[in-house]
Design brief:
It is built from 8 helices and 5 strands, in the order H-H-H-H-H-H-H-E-E-H-E-E-E. With about 210 residues, it is α+β, with helices and mostly antiparallel strands. Strand 3 and strand 4 form a beta hairpin. The radius of gyration is 25 Å and the shape is flat.
């Protein structure tokens, strides 16, 4: 999607309705700064207010996502393109999230082992009271647990898990991912479609 084109389209339609950025923002219950970001191509309207925005501007969601009013001839083609663009953007965002998960895990482990190492050195050299070492080790484990929970949330929501029995791809609950046996990002879980358990691999796309 061309955010700059969409932004100019929103600005033009807003002016056709004789609305200022502030007036449009008030109708949507947001700030005029958010409207300004749309119109300069810095961001897109949130999905939760997209329908309301289109109603105010007198356009369809397809018009909005394409940055122009579509005629009936090109409507279906534009709809398909907009949908494909959204799917592609989600897949790219999921890839970035999964890379972030690895970075979070590496940094968290490094920080934990660093604190444990420093605490051990302090104890061996008797350079600090014992409680200082205990606090350092506790802090290392605590931050690791928080980071692990955050990383697991990323893994749960980014992409899909593919059932080896029926091929169904789905987003499991956080609890089912957390409790499942795993080897890397492959987890032993029950498929909601066929009801069978299998080692399910993390995949990015909804379909092959």
């Amino acid at each position: 999607m061309d955010q700059l084109k969409i932004g100019k389209f929103i600005a033009g339609k807003r002016k056709e309705q004789n609305l200022t950025q502030l007036q449009l923002a008030e109708k949507l219950g947001i700030t005029d700064r958010a409207v300004s970001k749309w119109e300069t191509g810095k961001s897109l309207p949130d999905a939760s207010i997209m329908l309301e925005l289109c109603g105010i501007l007198g356009i369809t969601v397809n018009d909005l996502l394409n940055g122009e009013v579509l005629d009936m001839k090109s409507y279906n083609e534009a709809s398909e393109k907009a949908l494909l663009d959204m799917v592609r953007q989600k897949e790219e965002a999921d890839k970035r999230l999964l890379r972030m998960e690895l970075v979070i895990g590496f940094i968290s482990l490094a920080f934990m082992f660093t604190l444990i190492g420093l605490a051990t050195v302090l104890q061996v050299k008797q350079a600090a009271p014992a409680w200082v070492s205990v606090v350092m080790i506790g802090a290392g484990f605590a931050q690791f647990l928080v980071a692990a929970a955050f990383a697991l949330k990323i893994e749960q929501t980014a992409g899909y898990y593919a059932c080896r029995k029926c091929g169904h791809r789905y987003v499991p609950t956080y609890a089912s991912v957390n409790m499942a046996m795993h080897m890397g990002r492959t987890r032993y879980m029950k498929c909601p479609a066929c009801g069978k358990k299998s080692w399910q691999k993390k995949v990015i796309g909804k379909e092959d």
